[in-house]
Design a protein that fits this description.
Helix content is 54%, strand content 18%. The protein has six helices and seven strands. The strands form two sheets. A five-stranded mixed beta sheet has the order 2-4-5-7-6, covered by helices on one side. Strands 1-3 form a two-stranded antiparallel sheet. Helix 2 (69-99) packs parallel to helix 6 (227-237) and helix 4 runs antiparallel to helix 6 (227-237). The longest helix is centred in the N-terminal third of the chain and has 61 residues, at 2-62. Bound molecules: adenosine-5'-diphosphate. Its EC number is 2.7.13.3.
Length: 261
């Protein structure tokens, strides 16, 4: 009897426990969904006025010769602000969509060296302004199948950060290797920089949304704290993983591992 009673109590406790957890969780999940929906809608609605403002500024820009130098400078400031706000809005929209697993994967075949060389070219220009060297360590040509756009967006985030967080004359390298000995071949891409590095206490937070280390909490550097959380979402959409190793004042190494065909 006591065994049966304990079994009944156990089931009863489990049932009540589950019900309470469900009830307690429902408002949390519900409010999270509402929050996501609100961010998605607000970001979406903001895109139209932003593109109208951008178009208006482009028209004024055509007549900038007739503007005073003060107005030209103000125009350029407004354009920069609009560009970063548009980026922020796009980032927020991407994050809410990727959360809802509404991201479409578009796999195509391409040659990896050419793909990476094309990606780094514009960054080499930006890096050269800081007298940094940015190089790609190429391997023999190889065709892979992946979502080019997402992979490109992912590498952009790391290169952008590497340049931003590496002082003048620093060195940035991008290298890759293929691990095709396994059943599911993987591409490992590493982005290394000789920059300011990240402390171990910050390392565990840098992939969180809006997280910026103490030093970079000003918006002047175009820092929003969203880049790495987008990278994390992109990698998970591609079915891969992300790791980072870093040492303060020495530099950082970000490794992207993604499955390829
Ligand atoms: P953002 O660069 O817009 O601030 P991220 O999410 O890309 O946002 O990065 C989060 C934080 O991680 C940055 O604010 C910066 O402090 C740190 N970080 C990212 N990449 C690097 C890097 N390569 N070197 C040093 N710190 C970095």
């Amino acid at each position: 009897i006591s065994f049966s009673l304990s079994l009944i109590f156990l089931f009863l406790a489990l049932y009540i426990g589950k019900k309470m957890t469900n009830q307690a969780m429902r408002p949390i999940i519900h409010s999270f969904d509402l929050q996501q929906e609100f961010i998605a809608n607000a970001s979406h609605e903001l895109r139209t006025p932003l593109s109208v403002i951008q178009a208006g500024l482009d028209i004024i820009d055509l007549e900038k010769n007739s503007l005073s130098s003060f107005s030209t400078e103000t125009l350029s400031d407004i354009k920069n602000e609009i560009r970063s706000t548009t980026q922020l809005v796009n980032d927020l929209l991407f994050l809410t969509r990727s959360d809802a697993s509404q991201v479409e994967i578009n796999n195509t075949e391409f040659e990896l060296n050419d793909f990476l060389l094309n990606i780094i070219r514009p960054f080499q220009l930006i890096a050269s302004k800081k007298h940094q060297t940015l190089t790609l360590q190429t391997n023999k040509p190889i065709l892979i199948k992946q979502d080019q756009e997402k992979l490109k967006q992912l590498i952009y985030i790391f290169l952008d950060n590497a340049i931003k967080y590496t002082p003048e004359k620093g060195v940035i390298t991008i290298q890759y290797n293929l691990n095709d000995m396994q059943k599911k071949p993987k591409l490992n891409i590493e982005i290394l920089d000789s920059g300011i590095g990240i402390s171990s206490s910050d390392l565990e937070h840098i992939f969180d949304r809006f997280y910026r280390t103490e030093k970079h909490r000003s918006r002047t550097e175009g820092s929003t704290g969203l880049g790495l959380s987008i990278a994390k979402s992109l990698v998970s959409v591609l079915g891969g993983s992300l790791t980072v190793k870093s040492q303060l004042n020495k530099g950082s190494k970000f490794t992207i591992k993604i499955p390829i065909k």
